[in-house]
Design goal:
mainly alpha; DinB/YfiT-like; elongated; about 65% helix
Length: about 180
């Protein structure tokens, strides 16, 4: 096998790994989409468990977090800066009522936009630094790359999907009472 063939195989394997990570992120989105379409909208205005966040806040938090990927990856400015504080703060960080219907539309449009942009990145771009790390820090820790950020964001979504499932359990328990 020639050196060029070895390089081609290595590049194909890197692309395969990148595709798997994107697909993992998409699978988390799809699972959340499925959950968001299970109940009437007013159900999502409830706390997922007593004393916990409302489901509508969890959705806004996930949107704010994904929206933060745009400047982080060099895709442009955030699409929904009005909910940006919800990436790191509680629901009281915004002074307006969260509309579940509007948030669902934002969630869908943002994730479609991100998927399109993710598919356009080259392996070199995926393994390159994101915009929150300096060149010097990236040289010290090259794992601070875009692909690693997406892995972490997909895991973050999965964590919050687990929180949302408590809402299903509460709804079922309420029916039994």
């Amino acid at each position: 096998m020639s050196d060029q063939q070895k390089i081609n195989i290595a590049e194909q394997r890197v692309q395969q790994i990148i595709d798997q990570v994107i697909n993992f992120w998409l699978a988390q989105n799809k699972a959340i989409d499925t959950f968001l379409n299970q109940h009437p909208d007013e159900v999502y205005l409830q706390e997922v468990a007593p004393g916990r966040n409302r489901a509508v806040y969890v959705l806004a938090h996930l949107i704010a977090t994904n929206d933060g990927l745009l400047p982080l990856f060099g895709f442009g400015e955030k699409l929904f800066p009005e909910i940006a504080p919800l990436a790191t703060e509680g629901e009281s960080a915004v002074d307006f009522e969260l509309s579940f219907k509007d948030l669902k539309k934002q969630w869908e449009s943002l994730n479609l936009f991100l998927e399109k942009r993710f598919r356009e990145l080259t392996p070199e771009e995926w393994l390159g630094k994101h915009n929150s790390v300096s060149d010097a820090d990236f040289l010290l820790d090259p794992q601070r790359n875009k692909l690693n950020v997406l892995i972490n964001r997909a895991s973050h979504q999965n964590y919050h999907r687990g929180q949302l499932i408590f809402l299903n359990e509460r709804k079922v328990l309420a029916k039994l009472s």
